[in-house]
Amino acid sequence: MDSDTLRKKFLEFFANREHQHTIVPSSSLIPDDPSVLLTTAGMQQFKPYFMGKADPMRDFGSKNTVSVQKSFRTSDIDEVGDESHLTFFEMLGNFSFGYKPGEPVSSTGGYFKKEAIGYGYDFIVKELGLRIDYVSVFEGDKEVPADTESEKIWKSLGIADVRRMGREDNFWGPTGIEGPCGPTTEIYVKSSEGKSIEIWNIVFNEFYCNSDKTSRKLEIPGVDTGMGLERLAMVVENVPTIFDTDLFSPLMAMMPYDMDIRRKRVFADHARGIVFLVSDGVRPSNKEAGYVLRRLLRRIIVYGEEGIDIKKAFKKILSLYCGFYPELNANAVDEVLNGEYQTFSRTLKRGMKELGEGSALDAKSAFRLYESYGLPYEIIKEAGGRRADNLRREDFDKEFERHRAVSRKGKEKKFGGHGLILHTGELKAANEEEVKKVTRLHTATHVLQASLRKVLGGEVRQAGSDITAQRTRFDFTFPRKITKEELRKVEDMANSVVERGFDVIMKEMAYEDAIRNGALAFFKEKYPDRVSVYSVVDENGEVFSQELCGGPHVKNTEEIGHITIVKEESSAAGIRRIRATVTP
Ligand code: GLY
Q1: DSSP bridge pairs for 562
Q2: Which of 197, 224, 231 to mutate to test the pocket of ligand 1 (most atoms within 8 A of CB)?
Q3: Cα(344)–Cα(334) distance, rounded to whole angstroms?
Q4: Which residue would you say has higher pLDDT here, 247 or 215?
Q5: How far, in Å, is the centroid of ligand 1 from the Cα of 228?
Q6: Are 196 and 204 in contact (CB under 8 A)?
Q7: How do residues 108-118 score in pLDDT, each as one tens digit?
Q8: For the structural domain made of 426-583, what CATH number should be given?
Q9: Assigned CATH topology for domain 3-238
Q10: CB–CB of 197/235 below 8 Å?
Q11: Could you give the CA distance from residue 581 to residue 584 in angstroms, rounded to a whole number?
């Protein structure tokens, strides 16, 4: 069974008539949650549902969902090269939000331990024909009791080897500083080499972990599971490492025969990560996700010198994955590689020469190599050999942060008091003129969303947005490409709102009242109890658009200026993306 069949089998198993889960497309690797850098798990996009801040029945028509989520974990970057660690991976997961004890199990009732474990068992044993080696459950501690219920359920299914393990292994979450968390039960199977590997983590979100590490019981518990596709493929395809699965083997086969195996694996992992990060809009830079991308790029550029055609490798990855991920963008990947290659290749040789000489490397001298020649930590650590023995990532990162803090201070001064506006991760502007432009684009985005819904129907829902001083980018749910004719209708409708000069009115109210009145809320956003609602209202007081929003907005739509939709494309499966500009 190949990996594509595995993805489909998983989604179909949970979406079938018996299990009734709604298939939700993977969200972007760039999360809407500003407290995390990249999407690290399937539950990321569902956090508001676990916290009772968003309604799954409204958004998915079910309390149960299933997804194949693009995920990226920087925490494992130093482990990549062994048999099973990756930065980018695909996470299969099923989720249930809101199980009420006593309610019948169904798409409206949600489910909990008995069903979650039963589904896990059925999928692994009956669907895939694998043998469970053993399972683990939470052993309990001062705060949370031992999970004897899961233990009993596994035994009733005929699994004799149930091991109790501690918090380190069998307690998940929260992501970020606070959030849902709970005990887990994990499924282990034997690899072709006879080693036991963990393949499926089933989390019972029974608690809410506060930022001070205390926790309270959640009124409505949920289920969150995560199973790495690569590891599952490894055991299903009965191969010794994830790099021998069909997800990687065509790529591994392109690398020089005599190249070190760890370096081959790092190349394969990083090249795949780059293709997905770039396609979701990350661009190389010296901060946050852009810095992660830059490090991956530079490392493969250095490894490429051993005789790998990087462009060909990217093409291979695109051909392997574009069937399931239509958002993959060959042109963007090509452009980003060319750009980074140009910047880096100028200094690479000199940097490597300097790295080959001199005395022991510490965080300071390593950081100087990064600053002068752009050599990332990984390259310095590896190519520095014995001289880098005492160099540690934490020290390098500290040095990096210290320098960034100094340069940030310098920049804030330059903007002379206007400062940086960052509004729920949506608005980015640096001076007064940009703030005005961004404000116009912000209202234009509301007008466009309302126009899209009127032209294409109510299934259009915001799936993300990003506004800069140049343009607005708006992602929304819609199952197919939008025709030119439809786009023109949307644009004309939006511009007639501009021309007729509708008032934009802000009202504060309780969240529940806003939703009851039909105001649109971005389902991934966490809203406070009292919210501001912005309405665009016509001459007769009829509401054209109504959204929960922090603003800022123009007072009247005539201030927006002419709206032009410059692009319409796919952003992910089931998600379309438009870009629009405004001109005076
Ligand atoms: N959220 C469960 C996992 O990532 O394993």
Answers
A1: 583
A2: 224
A3: 15
A4: 247
A5: 9
A6: no
A7: 778 999 999 99
A8: 3.30.980.10
A9: BirA Bifunctional Protein; domain 2 (3.30.930)
A10: yes
A11: 10
